Automatic annotation (TrEMBL):
The keyword Oxidoreductase does not apply. The keyword Iron-sulfur applies. The lineage of its organism: unclassified sequences, metagenomes, ecological metagenomes. This is Predicted oxidoreductases. Keywords: 4Fe-4S, Iron, Iron-sulfur, Metal-binding.
Length: 156
């Protein structure tokens, strides 16, 4: 079983591009390897594009399953409906959108500063050689996570 990191934006893919990863996935599936997708929402950085992100993953026939982190009953209901091809009621969508979220920066941040340059809100800065977030300024847009070369930034 192989668990490749794959999402519509290529967030977190190291040492290659989204296209490179798709090619490797096809090669592995062609060799008879079982696959399940990891990080379909790019560590939460694609939450604003959830349905588009899942549509992308579900369009890839090589995958037997998709690993998705969930914390609440509403998230389970949302994902179950979406993955089974059912419409998601607006009440459930709204409940999931209202869930409290925050930006999480992993301790392996190297302080490269790419996220700081990408942040339009000025919510990120360097302290002690690594990125830190001012949660009062952060809009949870996920743009910073899309440029982090070490996949240190997640919306949780």
């Amino acid at each position: 079983m192989i668990q490749p990191l794959i999402n519509i934006a290529g967030i977190g893919i190291r040492g290659g591009t989204l296209e490179d990863m798709l090619e490797a996935i096809k090669k592995a599936a062609g060799a008879g390897k079982g696959l399940y997708a990891m990080k379909a929402l790019g560590g939460g950085n694609l939450l604003e594009r959830t349905e588009e992100a899942f549509d992308f993953i579900l369009s890839l026939p090589e995958f037997a399953s998709v690993a998705v982190g969930m914390r609440t009953r509403e998230e389970v209901e949302y994902n179950t409906r979406l993955f089974s091809g059912q419409s998601v009621p607006e009440q459930i969508k709204s409940a999931v959108r209202r869930l409290p979220r925050r930006l999480h920066l992993d301790n392996w941040c190297t302080g490269c500063g790419k996220c700081i340059l990408r942040c339009r809100s000025g919510a990120l800065s360097l302290s002690g050689g690594r990125a830190v977030v001012d949660s009062q300024l952060c809009t949870l847009c996920g743009y910073c996570g899309s440029v982090c070369p070490n996949f240190c930034i997640k919306v949780v």
